[in-house]
Amino acid sequence: MNGFPWFTRRKPLDPDIADRRDRLPDPQPLDDRPLRQQRFVVLDLETSGLNMSRDLVLSIGAVSITDGAIDLGNQFESTLQRETGKLSASVLIHGIAPSELAAGVEPAEALLGFMEFLGDSPLLAFHATFDQRMLSRALKQDLDHRLRHTFLDIAELAPMLCPEAGIRNGGLDEWVEYFGLQVLQRHNASADALVTAEIALILFSHARRQGLKSPASLASALSRWQRRQHAPAL
């Protein structure tokens, strides 16, 4: 047991929250505009554990990439209000104390704030499947909202675009070391989102040199690469 209830009945949404949710923009598809012209949002979540069916989102950190650069003046960070029981081992990693969770933002408000920050932009994340599933479940449970935004996985883009690194299933720390980045803090949602954004910009530069100059072409190349990785050996 991790001390976090895996299911809580959703409270009726405040009418203002519901109205703001209903005015969220539809996500835009990945298209043929240059990568530099596409706004991306880089997401990192801290959670109560790694069980995507039971654990909860505790903290959301995000930064935007706009006009080919990290917009340091436009970031998002929120710790969600959660009831805690017995502490899980994950607190030793993310360091979010029970007092911080007790004083956090009401989940529907925090999630809606993130979705308003996200707007219609596609998402980038490291090991994106985990973040996508955890965020999707949180949005459904706490905001009665279905996530439809496109995710691109930095953990997959990196070995595709930089095969010379010899890192196939590496973690974020391995790519940080490979690219020689300086990281002052890890396992904090905002800090991890920021360093993931730095890696994303490096990868976009590699992509352009390889003729992948738009979000659509990058996503298409990634899809082909993933199929090759999972194809049975002859």
Descriptive notes:
The chain is of the alpha/beta class and 234 residues long. It is 42% helix and 15% strand. The protein has nine helices and five strands; from the N terminus they run αβββαααβαβαααα. It has helices at 15-22, 91-94, 98-102, 107-118, 128-143, 154-161, 172-179, 189-209, 215-230, and strands at residues 40-47, 57-66, 69-79, 123-125, 151-153. A five-stranded mixed sheet has the order 3-2-1-4-5, with helices on both faces. Helix 6 runs parallel beside helix 8. The longest helix is centred in the C-terminal third of the chain and has 21 residues, at 189-209. The radius of gyration is 18 Å and the shape is globular. The relative contact order is 0.18.
The secondary structure category is alpha/beta
Q: Give the CA-CA distance, first to last residue.
A: 44 Å
Shape descriptor reads globular
Q: Report the β-strand fraction as a percent range.
A: 5-15%
Question: What string, H for helix and E for strand, traces the elements in order?
Answer: HEEEHHHEHEHHHH
Mind describing the biggest β-sheet?
5 strands, mixed
Which blocks of ≥5 consecutive residues have pLDDT under 50? 1-7
- The rounded Rg comes to 18 Å
Number of β-strand runs: 5
Helix content: 40-55%
Q: Calculate the mean pLDDT score and round it.
A: 90
